Amino acid sequence: AAAPVRLWVKTEPFLVGVLPVPPPARLGPHYLRKMAVYTRVRAAEGCFPRLSWPRWRRIACGKLQLGRDMAWLYFELFHSLLRRDPPRCLEWAETEAACVSADELERERSKVGAPHPDAGGRGESPAHPNAFFLSPLGKLSVDTLQFLLFLCIQQVNKVSLRRSLIGEEWPSPRTKSPSLSGKSSSDNKNWNDQEHLAFVQSHLLDILELLLEPEQLTASSHSTHSSMVSYEAVCALSFLIEGTVSKSRTVRPLHELALWQPCQEPNGYSKLSRAFCLAKLESWLRSCLTTNPFGMSACLRAGKKLAWAQQVEGTTRRAKIACNTRGVPEESSMVIMSQVYKQTLAKSSDTLVGAHVRIHRCNESFIYLLSPLRSVTIEKCRNSTFVLGPVQASVHVHSCDTVRVIVICHRLSLSATTGCTFHLLTPTQPLILPGNQAVSFAPFHTHYPTLEDHMAQVGLATLPNRWDDPMLVCRESGDRSVFSLMPPSDFYTFVIPFEMEGDTTETPGGLPQAYQKALSQREQKVQIWQKTVKEAGLTKDQRKQFQMLVENKFYEWLVQTGNRLQLDSLVPPAVGSKQAAG
């Protein structure tokens, strides 16, 4: 008989929460089991059921041999998974921005207080507990069990020695990646729901053992046949797994489905102890786990096709854009875009709001997605410009050449890029992963009328802004010479060429002084030039001849710089305006 429930692995923890790089050696199962026991034993010291930042820092630096920056990166990356109220995000941004030194910032992070009423916990309905706790005073802690699961799933990007020996996987900058068919790949595991399912199935016992209480474990931190899994542990597992009652479309967290009467006997639930027999629970989970109906595979197979792009004549490339947003849970909405070629694509659309966006193999194009977004991945693109609305979680750029990304986002990471430029406003350090060459960072330098409204929707402020302070996550990827800050003399503002309704009329937060000074000096030169021309006393014919000369030089410049392509793709204007407004 068919299982009365369908379960699947959620996409978002892997897509937003997993760092797209092999994890440190000590984040493996052995050390995580030790950490799980350590936190339970030291519950009274701020380790359980919530883990404070000072305690995690001590575990990470002392036991797991991570640097302090990496410890904070994982702690804060876990926070990116949560959909907290934007005002609370802005509150913490204000706290960070007010800190005048690293020591003061560390003191703010280290304040530990009682759980906030909105922090969630082990109550009756922790369907989406606010596992990263931020009180009004900036006191930080995370849900311990969910954080352990978060650290565990970092292993999805671990390089398999066996697979690399038989040629399926190798961590090179240009590792062969999949087509948009969703087939297995080594460099796209964060998006690949089939990889997520395979990971959980192959590591299910390790995952359950992380959640056991110490008395349910042997001396070597392994389970026994009589081990029981507490209800609170199954609540934590809802961080990774959700599902439906068969034939129902209502998505429910795992712990609710586990307590449904027809499931209690097969999953070994005891009403007396309010716990589950581990062996039965594991067997039940395996029998019910299936492919995520809202993942990338389903989107590509059965999603709604979007006619946003033009099909360019004379090329075999065919633009493909699909979404799954009709009838899916908020956190699962996605838009996948491939092979947009030699054109301008501009959208501000409800389909994009809060969506995970994947942009794949787009070349020689200008792409404007002017809506508040959840996350964006840009892969294998060349010679293109991407102007994005504010991104609540992360932007990851992989295996791209000569692209320009203009974005306000919570976090940026990049790997295997060459000659790419990033105009940023971000409260976190840009993450430079392995394989990058000639990266250029510059301040965010544009606006559109609804930009500040969109920033407020996703909880992003203008301060702190760490666009110029990248973090080299893997030292073996090279030294700090892989990136540079754009010289002010090379800096120009960027104009978004679409009319929209709204109140934003200038770049949020302004520009750094050196860049603003360079623009002012350039503007002054233009004014002097205009004055010189005006005072030259040219005749009507001379003015006409001079104008033609300037226009010809301008046209040559458009062709040489490639800007002619962008202007041509904006014609006719009515089409561009409709696209931007659609």
**How much strand?**
15-25%
pLDDT under 50 segments (min length 5)? 113-138, 162-186, 572-582
CATH topology of the largest domain: Pectate Lyase C-like
Coarse shape = elongated
- Share of helix among residues? 25-40%
Task: Give the overall average pLDDT.
Answer: 85
Evaluate the radius of gyration: 26 Å
**Quaternary assembly:** single chain
Number of domains: 2
Outline the structure in words:
With 582 residues, this protein is an alpha/beta fold. The chain folds into 2 domains: 5-112 and 137-158 and 188-290, no CATH class; 296-537, 3 Solenoid (Pectate Lyase C-like), CATH 2.160.20.70. The protein has 20 helices and 24 strands. The strands form 4 sheets. The chain has a 15-stranded mixed sheet that branches. Strands 1-6-7 form a 3-stranded antiparallel sheet. Strand 6 and strand 7 form a beta hairpin. Helix 2 runs antiparallel to helix 7 (144-153) and helix 3 crosses helix 4 (68-80). The longest helix is centred in the last third of the chain and has 22 residues, at 513-534.
